[in-house]
Amino acid sequence: MDLTQGTAEEKNRRAKKMMLWFGIVSLIMGFAGWTSAYIVSSKRDDWISDLELPQAFFISTAIIILSSITYFVAKKFVARNDQKMGTLFLLVTLVLGISFIVLQFYGFSQMLENGYYFTGPTSSIKMSYVFLIAAVHIAHVVAGLISLLVVLVQQLRGKYMPGDMLGMELGATFWHFLDFLWVYLILFMYFVK
Q1: 17 in a structural domain
Q2: How many CA atoms lie within 13 A of 58 on its CB side?
Q3: What total number of domains does the chain contain?
Q4: Is residue 174 part of a domain?
Q5: Which residue has the higher pLDDT, 116 or 93?
Q6: Alpha helices in the chain (DSSP H)
Q7: Burial letters for 32-66: b for 16+ Cβ neighbours within 10 Å, e otherwise?
C-alpha cells in the first residue's frame, strides 16, 4: 500500500495513527530501559528480594483492566450509533481511570507505612525502581485521562459517528496500551525478585 496515495483526509488519518504509534514505541523503549536497569540492579548485594508489592497495586490492576473493557464497550456503542450508551461507558472509563490513580497513590502510602521510601537512608534501590516505574506510569495515565476527557467532550458535542471515530480510536489505542503496560509492569515487579 502506498502511503502517499489517498485523499487529504485519509493521509491525515494515517499520519495521526503513525504519530500515536511512534509515541507508543518511544514509551516502550523508556520502560524497557527501566525494567532492564531493574534486572541489572537485582544482582546488587543490597537488593531486597522479599519485598511484597502493596495490595492496592493489585486492586488497581483489576481496575485498569476493567477500564479498558469499558472503553472498548463505549467504542462499540458509538460504532452502532448508540451515543447515550457510548457516553455512559466513556464516563465509567474516566471514573475507573481516576480510581486507578487514587489506588496507586494509596499503594505508595502502604509502602511508606511499611518503611519503604523512594530515597534516603531507609530506602533501597529496588524501592526506588518500584516508586519510579509506578510514578512514571501514573504520569502517562494522567495523559491518558486528558486524552479521554478530550474524547468525552468530543463525544458530548456529537463529533463521533459510525465510520467517523478517529479521535476515539486513537484515545482507545493509547488507553489500551497503558493498560497492557501496567499489567506487564506489575507482573514484572512481582516475578522478578
Answers
A1: yes
A2: 5
A3: 1
A4: yes
A5: 93
A6: 8-41, 55-79, 83-113, 125-156, 166-191
A7: eebbeebeeeeeeeeeeeeeebbebbeebbebbeb
Instruction: Transcribe 111-160 into DSSP letters.
Output: HHHTT--SSSTT--HHHHHHHHHHHHHHHHHHHHHHHHHHHHHHHHTT--
Per the domain annotation, does 1 fall within a domain?
A: no
* pLDDT range class, residue 180, cuts 50, 70, 90: very high
The answer as to whether 2 is a domain residue is no
User: Residue 171 is part of a domain; what is its CATH number?
Assistant: 1.20.120.80
- Classify 5 in phi/psi space as left (phi over 0), alpha (psi -120 to 50) or beta: beta
Q: Closest Cα partner for 101 from 129, 146, 64, 76? A: 64
Mean of pLDDT values over 134-157: 96
Tens of pLDDT along 54-113?
999 999 999 999 999 999 999 999 999 999 999 999 999 999 999 999 999 999 999 888
Chain position carrying cell 540492579: 41
SS3 at position 161: strand
